[in-house]
Here is the input.
Amino acid sequence: MIIVKDLSVERLNKKIFENINLSVVSGNITILKGRNGSGKTTLIKAILNIIEPSVGSIYWKGKLLKKNLYDFYNNVTYIADRTSSLKKLTLKDNINIWKKLFLSNINNSQIEIALKTLKLDKYLNQKVGRLSLGETKKLEFLRLIIENKNLWILDEPLSNLDDDSIELMKQTFEDHCGKEGSIIFSSHQNPGIYVTDEINL
Amino acid sequence: MKFLVNPSKFNEIADYIFKPVLILSIILFALGLLFSLIISPDDYQQGSTVRIMYVHVPSAWLALLTYAIMTLYSIAALAFRIPFGFIFNTAVAPIGAVFTLICIVSGSLWGKPMWGTWWVWDARLTSVAILFIIYLIVIFMNLSFENRIVREKVVAIFILVGSVNLPIVKFSVDWWNTLHQPATISKFSKPSIDPSMMTPLIIMTFAFMMIGLAIAILRIKTEIISRKSNLG
Amino acid sequence: MSLRFQRLLLILLTLVIILIAVLLILYNTRENVSYFYTPSEIDKSEIIINKTIRIGGFIENDSFNKISSSSFKFRITDEKASIPVSYNGILPDLFREGQGAVIEGAFNNNDVFNATNVFAKHDENYMPASIKEDLKDTGYWNKKYK
Amino acid sequence: MKFLNKIIFFYYREYKLNLSGFQDILTNIIFFFVSILIFIFSIGPNKEIISLVGVGIVWTLLLLSSTLSLRKFYQDDFEDGNLLILHLNGLSFGFIAILKTFSHFFFVQVPFLLSIPIACILLNIANDKLIYLSASFGIGSLILSCLGSISSSMNLMNQRNFLLGSVIVMIFSVPVIIFSIGIINMEESFNSLINILFGILLIVFAINPWASGLCLKLSIENN
Here is the structure.
């Protein structure tokens, strides 16, 4: 799916990382490891074609990423470290907006099941602002299921999650890889998730 | 012509021409003052107050000239990715602002004897005031962004948006002015300046240009050095 | 359509829009937002009585007479046609014969233009005082000037 | 067809976002009326003066009130990371700028447009002037929204003084004010002045996607 060829990025003449090589095939999980501020988010932004790499190039399905950006964006879901749900609205509205905005063909029953597993179903009519940080982060993962795309890119998904949520996270990752999806995620701890390849920054 | 674009080349040329430019500007200024204050005659209607024109008009031209050059450098910096354009913008913005300030102050000084008040909402004075505010916004923008890359590009974009809007503002202010005080019979009398008053005007304009150039060279060199130092 | 071609199309579209806008603005200013008519432009037939218009021109030499401290009669001309004007109010200090002026008012029925206000502003020609003196000696300059 | 749905559902999101916090729109309108009140108290209730100055007051206050909600343009979505998600959803930055400008027009300027008649009653402005006022504000408000979009996208990364954005909008809206008041006061050259205002709208509308788009891209890149 994605091939990254000796990528290096410079910001204000400071080298953030250099000649990173990565090839993501459907069904495998890549973890970007490194302590805080080691450029994990910058690498993700480079993959998402938001930052211009100074050296190296990225290929999507064989072609240069810049060339068929539209197709790339149709197949990727990006979960940032910040929660993108609208604090002023209720959970229900947020889910509605996501469903409509991403033209997803998910039927409501699947969303109910996901909400139950994430133990968020009882907050359905509450404003997102009242939820705790961990719960809002879990709500963010609901977007993965709603968008239903085959490449997931997550930035620090496991930060401030409790143990059984991490367990749940492992479960959803494995299901997704089972269905020919692929995942790239960054983490500064050691999550103990089965990982096909690893990049240390 | 490389020195217009490449910082290191600019430094070489700058050291080379700085001294002569400075001396030339002092000579021109002395000559200009001599001409405008002593040799050139009074005006038949305004008497000697017309001498303020020899400072007012050149500073207005210089203010516009600086803004035009800054626009060119912004286009170069954004479209053709020439970093020297950003250096030029941050360095020259205050110089343009000072020229506009001189123009406004001399304009209001000229207004006192002629119209009896310190400030008249005359078309030219109003558009120069707006240009001054745009310069101030450019300077404030340079001060209020932390991230250098964003700061440079946003300032360049603002200058470009400003350069598109300036003619519209000038046009609308002129129209507004004729609405309230209809212009003199511009259809009949072309503003004619007697040759004996034209020479000091030209000398003063070149004097202003030389001084502006000298200060610009100094500021651009400091900007280049400051960028090299905190990047290193 | 490749990305580059789409981008080019958008740039072209923007330039076309800006061009249309500029033409629109320029066309509309010259078309009818004229600031004032000149005496020759006003042809007597289609004058609409007491519709406020503005007339610009020179004050005709020795057509200026003062009826009372605040009412005056003079003629305004552009060397092609001249219009009698009656005005009551205070005249601006730069107002004198041969000087440019713009008057605002309306025609009354016996086609005398009674002005409601008069704008006279320093016309922008700068002429050294010395030349003014020479003109005076040669009598070419009109004596009534202050 | 998919693209059209995206636009419609973008506005569904904007509708939900703006109408949920109904008090934001109401506070704008209340700001507008309170400032009219203050003008009345400062000038005095004398009918003639107010009707003479009324049109100028209405237009200035409309301009000031529309610079109030500049923060709501991109700042909130930028901080949530929603701007990036919208981009990854396939909308280019320039296109997001256009959509946001129209959403600002619908949710902020249209309420003002509706509150103009009441303001005209308060300020004793004649009825025919009311028609010209709403016509000129109809076009003028879109120009103000475009200028607001440009200035707020410029100030996304500007931590220190966000007020710079409103100053930018005010400086560039001088022609809008001049020609709009011209339209209202000079009935005879109405259609030529409306065309001039429309010309300015075209220019600003053509610049908006490029300037705002570039600034948004910059801010997300260097966030």
In short: The radius of gyration of chain B is 20 Å. The interface with chain A takes residues 148-149, 231 of chain B (CB under 8 Å). Residues 11 and 221 of chain B are 7 Å apart (CA to CA).
